[in-house]
Amino acid sequence: MKFAFAEQLLQERNDAIVVGVFKGNSLTSTAQALDTATGGQLKQVLALGDFKAKPGETTVIFNPDNLNATTRLVLVGLGDAEKLDEQEYLKALRGCGAVIKNLKAERIACFLHEATVDNRNQYWKVRQAVETIAHVNYKFDAFKSKTQDTDNDDETEKTILFACEEFSKHQTESAVTHGSAIADAVKLTRDLANTPPNVCNPTYMVEAAKAAAKEQSALTVHVISEKEMANLNMGAYLAVSQGSDEAAKFIVVEYHGGDKHQKPIALVGKGVTFDTGGISLKPSASIIGMKYDMCGAASVLASIKMAAALKLPINIVTFMACVENMPDGKATRPDDVVTTMSGKTVEIANTDAEGRLVLCDALTYAQRHEPEVIIDVATLTGACLVALGDQASAVLSNTQTLADEILEAGQNSLDRAWQLPLWKEYQAQIDSPVADMCNLGGPGAGTITAACFLARFTEDAVWAHLDVAGTAFKTGKDASASGRPVPLLSEFLLRRADVIPA
Ligand code: BES
Ligand code: MN
Ligand code: ZN
User: Fold this and answer.
1) Which of 32, 147, 236, 243 has the highest local Cβ count within 10 Å?
2) Atom 5 (ligand 1): residue with closest C-alpha?
3) Which residues contact 211 (CB under 8 A, 6 or more apart)?
4) CA-to-CA distance for 413 and 393, rounded, in angstroms?
5) What's the CA gap between 363 and 456, in Å, rounded?
6) Centre of ligand 2 from the C-alpha of residue 453, in Å
């Protein structure tokens, strides 16, 4: 699927035209123009009353009159004209994406962004359209045999075109360019995370990073082996790996698009390619979906690739902490005490709280790059899913301005985050009788105590933590990675690079 923009889109051949309709049969401007051109066909369809124009509701008029080669008119409901907010617009885009999925149309002209959305400009509306249509049209069939049902195997290469006027050309062009790069990054994240854990192990993540660098030559990849990790005294990270036959890989990817002297933005991702819990083995039902425990690492890789694709004038360094958490005779025991790269010691009370163990050493290492800010991304706690469900990622930070910046990036990209407190009073919950701290914080405030643990390794940095346990994926019959928080991170990076048109 490709995205592009064009002026005077209606004067060219389109296989399908997508227009918005409000409740009460009020038409957006292009819908009105098409109604006139077809001798009132849209109004006739609406008069039947079947189509209620609820946000996201869709219907198709096939072979409309007098439109030459245009064989499909897609009507998309936008609800009440006065009430069209971001979320309703998003519903309309999702509906549009779902119809497009089933059309054998190559050239699709989209006019949904004509509608006025509260406080949002052409750039925002078109970029959101690109990202959402791409998201809905995602499929992951790399592991399906060819004998499967092929009903949905329409291989038509589609191009979605967005109409623009002379004055909105720059906004539309940026929106299509940025939106396409973000959509590619979301797809990369989803593909990596959806790949089963017998294939997607730490070594596979190295290959993925190298493949990204091959496509974007501005990226460089450096892999730190277990032996080097031992030399660096990354005792907590290695403790997680020692029960697995797969070698842990700590992957550093760099991008220098900014001034040589500008400090980099550091992104650190949890890359547990499978989390059994280790000796503190998870119950069977909770193990399902733990291939997604590397979503953090996948999303930071995809985000830096997005930045390179757009040649953003900033410096970024990402750290993918890849490892498999397995139980065996060599595995770490609950009660073990390990020494981290920072020199601080940790009592491992639960081997299933492994994310903070790999991240603490990754965060210590990341600070060697003297970053401007560090953001870590992790499917860290089940408690986060309990607290916020699948709507918001949790953000916790030692610097309120950074938390605010992340919250705003989330709101603007509709990949929302919500802040939880990092009050020092919670720190007592991870005190240990034998070591400097414990990797378990008791039953209450699980997301916060996990962040408190990480905070003890980032005291000298401007740091934020994103817990994406509830947002990065869903399990069940429609199990899939969501690609979150790539849209949030992308928005953050685009803003830092100051490339979003006003
Ligand atoms: N990867 C899990 C967290 C998780 C759970 C993510 C469910 C997504 C969905 C993490 O490593 C974990 O096991 N956390 C434990 C921590 C506990 C032992 C302190 C948890 O949340 O139960
Ligand atoms: Mn775990
Ligand atoms: Zn985990």
Assistant:
1) 236
2) 382
3) none
4) 13
5) 10
6) 15
Please spell the DSSP secondary structure of 26-64, one letter per residue: EEPHHHHHHHHHTTSHHHHHHHT------TT-EEEEES-
Choose the catalytic residue: 72, 91, 190, 356. 356
Does position 204 have pLDDT exceeding 80, yes or no? yes
Q: Please give the domain boundaries of the chain with CATH numbers for all domains.
A: 2-139+156-182 (3.40.220.10), 195-497 (3.40.630.10)
Q: Which residue has 């930070």 as its token pair?
A: 397
Distances from the Cα of 154 to the Cαs of 131, 135, 398, in angstroms?
20, 17, 49
pLDDT of 154 higher than 90: no
The tokens of 413 are what?
């990209």
E strand or H helix that includes residue 192 = helix 169-194
pLDDT of residue 442: 87
State how far the Cα of 231 lies from the Cα of 246, in Å rounded to an integer: 19
Residue 396 near residue 426 (C-beta atoms within 8 A): no
**Nearest Cα residue to 334 out of 226, 435, 445:** 435
* Distance from residue 447's CA to the centre of ligand 2 (Å): 13
Pocket of ligand 1 (CB under 6 A): 275, 293, 350, 352-355, 379-383, 385, 440, 446, 469
DSSP, collapsed to helix, strand or coil, labels residue 481 as strand
Catalytic entry in 282, 344, 474, 495: 282
Could you confirm whether 72 is annotated as catalytic? no
**Does the structure show a pLDDT above 60 at 203?**
yes
156 band by pLDDT with thresholds 50, 70 and 90: confident
pLDDT in tens, 393-447: 999 999 999 999 999 999 999 999 999 999 999 999 999 999 999 999 989 999 9
Q: Which two tokens stand for residue 187?
A: 């797809």
Quickly tell me which residue has 């997508």 as its tokens: 18
**Choice from 325, 381, 440 to test ligand 1 binding pocket (greatest atom count within 8 A of CB):** 381
Please, are residues 64 and 74 in contact by the beta-carbon 8 Å criterion?
no
Which residues fall inside 5 Å of ion ligand 2, going by CB?
275, 352, 354
Report whether 3 contacts 179 (CB < 8 A). yes
C-alpha span between 337 and 345 (Å, rounded)? 7
Q: Is the pLDDT of residue 152 over 60?
A: no
Q: Among this protein's residues, is 282 annotated catalytic?
A: yes
Tokens linked to 118 = 């509260």
Each residue's pLDDT tens digit, 72-128: 999 999 999 998 999 999 999 999 999 999 999 999 999 999 999 999 999 999 999
Closest CA to 238 of 345, 361, 334: 361
